[in-house]
Amino acid sequence: MRKPILGITMGDPAGIGSEITVKSLLKPELYQKCIPVVFGDAQQLRRAAAIINAPVEVHAINHPSEAQPSAQRIEVIDLNNVPADVPFGKVNAVCGKAAYEYIAKAVSYTKDFSIHAVVTAPLNKEALHQGGCPYPGHTEILANLTGTKDFSMMLVGPKLRVIHVSTHISLRKACDACTKERVYKVIHLADDTLKLMGFANPRIAVAGLNPHCGEGGLFGDEEINEIIPAVQAAQAEGLNVSGPIAPDTVFHRAANKGEFDIVVVMYHDQGHIPLKVLGFSSGVNVTVGLPCIRTSVDHGTAFEIAGRGIADCESMDTALDLGAIMATTRFKDKLQ
After folding, report:
1. With 124 labelled, which of 104, 199, 242, 277 sits at a CA distance of 20 to 30 A?
2. For residues 38-59, average pLDDT
């Protein structure tokens, strides 16, 4: 079987994206699983390699099919769109625009399966906006580029996986977003995505929104009117889903007792907080529902340490591993 081609977007050039990309691509074991191709700026990758004293060649190519990477040779689709001396650690409109262009270029190659997954380094939202991109982050950018309406954010850690009913909206609006239709859709997205990760029959827990799942309506009726009907509809279709389960116990049952493979959470922080407490540097972000596979580091641009050579690439390592697994499963027929 041929190996899947992973398109790595370099992220904001003022952040740690180029550094963690180079560090991850130095590991020989990666090339047994996939063919990594960077979408970014070749001179910034060379700059990062020099900072960490990495003996690696950065080689520009015109198309992913030309890639012959190794731990000694990084292959890059070079957009050459930032100055060589762009300062690290500062919000810069040029960097925000460049980071968006890396994503757009990579996504364009997923449409004819020239690459099989996109793996993303971090963006800076302020720089994105200054550079003319109106979206709050990767998830929304990718949904727009692919014309996707039903999508969600999944976070994957060593002990816990969560998938969100809502993400980058206010907490007040998040309560209104917990509709039967949306919860039902996210349960299905969880089931579909975990099957790509190798789970034959994913065990899905659904968290409640209110304290004690509303206590029979005393503390809110969203569980009665929206969440329970969504769970029952999914159960009727044969999905292995339980809930709603009180948020103060469901993560313990999933992460520590191993009762569930994933938790459907109702809003951004309900999922992010437990996952980051359990494994801050090892989490991976997966956008689900897209026509292409996308995994990502689950951390920011770390401007405070950018350019110093001390960034941790663990999350990028894990994102690449997971992207390779998911791409191999989804495209097994095309990779024969």
Report:
1. 277
2. 97
